[in-house]
Q: What sequence folds into this?
């Protein structure tokens, strides 16, 4: 049986990046996905917006929904202050297996907890399992029809606090129209759109940053 796209991406990292150097892992993935084989990482252009929002928030506890191969996991974890933690949720075991190896190759496994399973089941268990009071930052990059139900679940489970920043990928392409409506029309969020492009393409896409007001 042939290899999968995530497995080929992992091979490219092992071949072209330096073990323990997150920047080189990020560059190796971006090069591979731009010049060899497209993949649904947040990418270098939207990645710079993610970096700037992260640096501004400097979260002690962060959540990522949708690990995929761990590209944005590394982008987030490399910017976390010592002692800060990132929990990332992945539904697909094959994606998770590759992500674990890429995160370890970057040397960031001590800052990251990867949990496998449906976000809808895992979110209500976050407090008891990981001793989380609330998240300072949430990156939504999983199935686009899960953005609204999972945001409501985070609210209902008391996992958001006044000032928690939600950053959602792909609000234009593939699109998350219900999510945009939800955060823009809610008095509980202050929202702003960061226009960009779909990873490795010239198609428009963007990130929506929403601050929970409590
Ligand atoms: O589907 C996407 N991302 C989602 C992957 C995922 N990785 N993990 C999950 C998960 C994780 C826990 C979950 N719990 C419940 N569902 C879950 C789904 N979902 C996605 C798709 C595109 C895209 C654009 C244009 C195209 F022509 C084709 C594709 C671009 C992107 O940037 C994406 O992020
Ligand atoms: Mg995405």
A:
């Amino acid at each position: 049986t042939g290899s999968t796209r995530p497995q080929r991406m992992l091979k490219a990292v092992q071949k072209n990046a330096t073990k323990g150097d997150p920047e080189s892992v990020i560059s190796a993935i971006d090069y591979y996905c731009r010049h060899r084989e497209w993949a649904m990482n947040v990418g270098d252009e939207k990645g710079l917006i993610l970096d700037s929002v992260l640096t501004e928030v400097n979260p002690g506890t962060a959540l990522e929904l949708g690990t995929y191969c761990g590209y944005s996991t590394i982008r987030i974890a490399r910017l976390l202050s010592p002692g800060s933690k990132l929990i990332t949720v992945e539904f697909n075991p094959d994606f998770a297996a590759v992500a674990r190896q890429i995160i370890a190759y970057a040397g960031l496994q001590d800052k990251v907890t990867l949990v496998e399973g449906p976000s809808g089941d895992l979110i209500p268990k976050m407090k008891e399992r990981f001793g989380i009071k609330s998240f300072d930052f949430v990156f939504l990059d999983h199935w686009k029809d899960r953005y609204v139900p999972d945001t409501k679940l985070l609210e209902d489970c008391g996992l958001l606090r006044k000032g928690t920043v939600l950053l959602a990928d792909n609000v234009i392409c593939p699109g998350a129209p219900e999510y945009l409506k939800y955060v823009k029309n809610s008095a509980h969020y202050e929202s702003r759109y960061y226009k960009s492009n779909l990873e490795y393409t010239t198609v428009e896409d963007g990130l929506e940053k929403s601050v929970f007001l409590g």
Summary: Residues 40, 65-66, 68, 89-92, 95, 118-119, 141-143, 146, 169-170, 173-174, 198-199 surround 75Z (ligand 1) (CB under 6 Å). The CA atoms of residues 34 and 208 lie 24 Å apart. Strands lie at 61-65, 85-90, 112-116, 135-140, 160-168, 189-197, 204-212.
